[in-house]
Amino acid sequence: MGALKEPKPVKLFSGLIFKEKEILLSAREKLVKVFGEIDFESDVSPFDYTYYYEKEMGKDLKRKFISFSKLIPPNSLPDIKNKTNEIEKKLNHKDTGDRTVNIDPGYLSEENVVLATTKGYSHRPYLNSGIYAEMTYYYKRESYRVFDWTYPDFKLPERIEMFHHLRNLYTAQVPHS
After folding, report:
1. Domain count within the chain
2. Whole-model pTM above 0.90?
């Protein structure tokens, strides 16, 4: 039998999908209040890989990633996803109740990148509190690798390179045993 031990802390990040810069800034401010200092921000890029959000959020959506300085225990992901859902609701359109931002938290470790989702599926194990995990990348031969189900924008070479950068930030932070 293997010896039980606590996992290493992991690096928290969030991917944000939005239309208006003001909403991005408001969401960013609320995320900092809850999760602390940001240590990385990607450039804003077009988000045109799916029409899933258009009905609720409109066209010409944008994507940005941020990561946080403070490392987290991996089992805190369900609570974090529920907190980001609360932030989304606070930023909903006052008139229609439609979302103005989608916030997808996840974590990065030396071995993989995991996203939190409220939607179960065959490759998404249930965690807790209505939240499922989706392993998006695994690390092998000095690179993150994708799965068949990895979202299209996560398959882009520049996105994988961004996560390599985050991994470098992480490995400089994480305690080594």
Report:
1. 1
2. yes
